[in-house]
Write a structure and sequence with these properties.
Structural class: alpha+beta
Number of helices: 10
Strand content: 5-15%
Largest sheet: 6 strands, mixed
Oligomer: single chain
Helix content: 25-40%
Shape: globular
Number of strands: 10
Length: about 280
């Protein structure tokens, strides 16, 4: 077993979706069946989406926690070629603020709350608990890696992982009048109104989110309306008690974007659904 495979299996056991990265910290290329998205395209999430390829295809969407896949003979060649282990931060419920130089680090120390920090070749990764939109170059020397993205695993770092702050969410949304009216980023936790939670088990919420994701994924037309209706249904059932988390909402947004919806439309649909329900 290679060191990379050993690390990947350990992370997967902790719920972190992993994938091999080649030289240059880039994902491996698609197989022949998936080249040019001939397979139907991303996301390849193993349990949803258009592509069912068992290989290491479609970059971040290949990341998985399934031991049988990670250690399979099909992935063995990929691990032998891998330069390092990558992971999908959003799939692990995390956001990575990638700071590439000393100026970016200095800004973060004054503008962002302290959190778990991992040294990198040129700077630092700041890890927060929560999921948001992934955007490059939100500031000089600063990228945000979370949903629909990947990061290099560089160790556990030091410090406690803080909740994702609004300052990072705001950076992930372009500063336009529409964005200011709807400041929620890719996924926004619903804190609810402090009432008692009516849900007896987490499985009830997970099942509701999974059903909404399935409705969006299987939509053959009227995608806008289907996305809005699915968001509305989830919020109507789970939006008032505070059970919804960033990871739950990210699953909905990822499914909608896989059907061609833009991040802005997802944000607007979520905001409008909340407004209709008075949340």
């Amino acid at each position: 077993m290679t060191d990379h495979l050993h690390t990947a299996l350990r992370l997967a056991a902790e719920g972190v979706p992993v994938l091999p990265l080649r030289a240059g910290k880039a994902p491996l290329g698609n197989c022949r069946s998936c080249a040019g998205n001939a397979c139907g395209g991303r996301p390849n999430m193993k349990t949803a989406g258009l592509c069912r390829c068992p290989g290491v295809c479609h970059a971040w969407a290949a990341a998985t926690t399934e031991r049988a896949v990670i250690a399979s003979p099909l992935w063995a060649a990929a691990w032998r070629r891998a330069m390092c282990v990558g992971y999908h931060p959003g799939g692990a419920g995390l956001t990575v603020v990638d700071l590439d130089n000393t100026d970016a680090i200095a800004w973060a120390r004054t503008a962002l709350p302290a959190t778990r920090t991992v040294p990198t070749t040129r700077g630092e990764h700041w890890l927060y608990r929560g999921v948001t939109q992934s955007v490059n170059a939100v500031r000089p020397g600063m990228d945000i890696k979370s949903a629909m993205s990947y990061a290099r695993w560089l160790g556990r770092g030091t410090g406690a992982t803080a909740p994702l702050p609004d300052a990072v969410r705001a950076l992930a949304v372009k500063e336009t009048p529409a964005a200011r009216r709807a400041p929620q980023a890719l996924s926004v936790p619903v804190r609810g109104h402090g009432g008692p939670c009516p849900h007896r088990t987490p499985a009830y919420l997970d099942r509701g989110v999974a059903m909404a994701v399935q409705r969006i994924t299987e939509a053959s037309g009227a995608v806008h309306a289907t996305v809005f209706g699915s968001f509305l249904a989830v919020l109507a059932t789970h939006g008032r008690c505070g059970c919804l988390t960033d990871a739950h909402v990210a699953r909905l947004f990822i499914a909608a974007q896989a059907k061609g919806e833009s991040p802005r439309h997802c944000t607007d649909a979520w905001t409008n659904a909340r407004a209709r329900l008075g949340l």
